[in-house]
Amino acid sequence: MKIRNVLSLFDGMRCGAIALERAGIGYDKYFASEIDKYAIKIADKNYPKAINLGDINNFQFWEFIEGFSWESIDLVMGGSPCQDLSIAKQNREGLEGKRSGLFWVYVEILKKARPKYFLLENVASMHNRDRDMISNILGVEPIMINSALVSAQQRKRYYWTNIWTTQPNDRKIFLRDIIEAGEPMTQKSYCLSANYGKKSVRDIDKGNTMIIDEPIPCAIRTYPRTKKPGVPRVSRPEVKHDGKSNSLTSVDKDAMVMFQLPRGKNNGGIHIDKAPTMTSNAWPYNNLLINKPVQIGNIGTNVQAHRVYSVVGKSVTLSANGGGRVVRQVYIK
Fold first, then answer.
1. Which of 123, 126, 58 is nearest to 92 (CA)?
2. Which CATH superfamily is domain 5-172 in?
3. For 182-193, how does the pLDDT look when each residue is reduced to its tens digit (9 = 90+)?
4. How many CB atoms lie within 10 A of CB 125?
């Protein structure tokens, strides 16, 4: 199958081009609207022939860009901003919000281009009134697809389209299938964060990073040790650098070992483990794979950024402010 020109709005790292390529759908020209400089840099590296149009709010001037014409667009697609629609935001303003209100610009562009095909994506956690409003304006009902079917992450999203669409087959991918293990990490940043990039494995007991490249005896401690007015208490690993284990006690967290799993197809991640004979409770998920996130603890509070999940389940939806560390951690009693 081949179409004429593609217009990708809120283009990001050019995922639309990736999807068309994997679906075997060819096209003549790919026009992209994106403003994030880092996303554009990656997109241009992978798909240098695409034509950047710039800010979606300036769509009235796109017809003056060489090679672009509204009449030649066969497909308009995009995932409009979700910040004002998502349940993750308190006091969300829905389609009237500044960022999610860009949906109305998408609609104006759709009217101007009058393409054969269109596709719009957004979060499934939006209010029903916003979902119904979008459906009424676009003239189609959405299909809800959870990306957990084709990835290791729970990610429920609505898709409005006039393209025939079905649910993808479940590929049975879990966190343990995608997490890398066995590689030295002392010279690498744990995630795309300025704070993590400056730390190493020896900073782990300071609460600065959560990466390891060798078995390390540790205990889970709460700091500060005594309660102080206005000072939050946070639990984190306390490392013993002499290589010796702490004395065994009746408290599970007093004597533990932190290590990475050996490399393997279904292995990966970081474990904080205690010898099975030292506890009366067996870890219930050792031989099970769970089609949802399995929370098994936290590192001080139960906010999203501090939650700890098992590799035998799915990841929660990744967020920009989560830091990434809890997804890699597995805490086993």
1. 126
2. Vaccinia Virus protein VP39 (3.40.50.150)
3. 444 444 444 444
4. 17
